[in-house]
TrEMBL record:
This is DUF5594 domain-containing protein. It holds the Pfam family DUF5594. It comes from the Bacteria. It comes from Caballeronia pedi. Residues 1-130 form the DUF5594 domain.
Amino acid sequence: MNRQQALRYETDFMPRIVERVTRVVGHGVRVEVLPYESLLVPTRLHVSAERAPHEGDDHRRGYVYPLNVFLTWDDEEIERLLGAGGEARFVRYLDAIGAKLDAWQGARDVDLTTRSQAEPSVLFGGLDFEA
């Protein structure tokens, strides 16, 4: 993917991903786009927060580290998104993002409810746009 494609992706698609992820994870979570720097440092979505208060709920303490997740999408997937039929595919993806976030949590010991995770930083990389 070249810089021009990355800029189009960041302009046309990432704001809608940010909006949807923000809606799914709720208040108190920062969701920001980290722009494309190079082939080795692609566009990233950074999802972070301070841990949510436990309010006396001892069995829901969560993990040791506060939420600090990075998401990146596969370059070929982004290029497909920029091509014919990409917009319709993307809309289906946005509709499925809540379920995807749920699945990613379990796969990497991330708990959005408590705003915590098992590792200091988690990368969900090489993501696709399948619904």
